[in-house]
Amino acid sequence: MRYLLLILALLPAAAQAARPNIILVMADDQGWGETGYNQHPRLQTPNLDAMSQSGLRFDRFYAGAPVCSPTRAAVLTGRSCYRVGVPEHGYALRHQEITLPQVLSDAGYQTAHFGKWHLNGLRGPGAPILRHDKFHPGTFGFDHWLSVTNFFDRDPLLSRGGEFEDYRGDSSDVIMEQAFKHIERQSASDRPFFTVIWYGTPHSPFKASTEDNAPFSDLDEASMHHYGELVALDRSIGALRTGLRTLGIEKQTLFWYCSDNGGLPKITPPTTGGLRGNKGTIFEGGLRVPGIIEWPGTVTPRQTDYPASVMDMMPTILELAAAEHPAPQRPRDGISLTPLFSGPSKTQRHRPEPIFFRYKSAAAVVDGDWKLLTQDFKKDAFELYHLANDVAESTNVAEQHPQRFQTLRRQLRNWLESTDASEAGQDYPEGRVAADHPQPMFWVDRPDYQPHLEDWKDRWEYKTWLDRRRRTKN
Q1: What Cα–Cα distance (Å) separates residue 288 from each residue in 132, 245, 310?
Q2: pLDDT in tens, 217-241
Q3: Cα(48)–Cα(30) distance, integer angstroms
Q4: Cβ neighbours of residue 126 under 8 Å, at least 6 residues apart?
Q5: Which residue, of 56, 171, 340, 343, has the fewest CB within 10 Å?
């Protein structure tokens, strides 16, 4: 990477300026159906709708897995969650992985993380990340971070590089305001910036303002607050888009929006827009999420059914940043989406590689309009769906298409074997996983959090959870 930095330093200023700023924004538990542009019957999202009209709107955008931490690991590595040791929520990302912020930082980008982290092996509601945490965002390439361990809600307590900061207001408004202040400072610099903003919304517990709840006052309390949180999230998207235009950097900035997994069950109206399943399942309702790329003047506004996923973020962004992955021989699971930016063509109709998923004992492969899945790959029980004709995954057509079924099953089996090898550490120079890599645990059980429990015991976002933990232990 030192040679790349030298090359960049010798480039003319105009050539360096061509590298865009990158902003990645991700919701927490927003389902595919929870946008106005996807015809939600109650929720209005005017700012996401406007973004979808001026950007590249993916109608088939996929999370890395049907839960949060695995998808976040996939964003930062371009690899499936099982390859990087994050098979489930609350697992720590391995330091042996090569992350997007590390590569971009080496390539001259300023890097920052805001909001939910959930890649340091700690479970429970989001707590401020401690300065000495061996897996805080800075250890993975972020120069600046204002982050919490997991989901965060109204009046959040955040950690700026280890210093606690107590805020008031909706978490989406708070984190976007803080992120934009940072973006505003960076916009005056000659260095391009890479900023990751990961919301805590609309993950439970749900708590929105009276004003944001008003359109949903006839719903049950959980649904009312859930959708109220999404009103605030959409408002903060509008604040970011307006801010970029006020600074005059919108044409130099790629803004990529998505959610980390499919929608939640038991919310009224439903969250997945008619898709089968919810968060935690391998069906479309658990994997398909809103996805938009906006880059005025570069990305042609349009709507596409081209299958894409968060694993595509790293190869796409590295290409735009003129940065090379330092270990290209490592198995990866994403492709660059830059050919889609200028509009559709005959060569861009079909994705050249399938998208694979693995979660617990479930697995799936999406290849064009076809999807093969199993809810237990240890058994020979696979189902085949043609998504273009059956987006609800209601009719298994394996018997009608035996050759397609066999081909996809073989591909999925081979890929699962590849992820087993990666999970065991065979992708690393050491050939194994580092011996000191931690197992998930609740932060309340970690000794270094004990001194804070008395101060936090009456905070609304912790009180119920801490009380329940105490009762469980006793």
Answers
A1: 36, 30, 11
A2: 999 999 999 999 999 999 999 999 9
A3: 12
A4: 116, 118, 148, 149, 150, 151, 152, 156, 200, 461
A5: 343
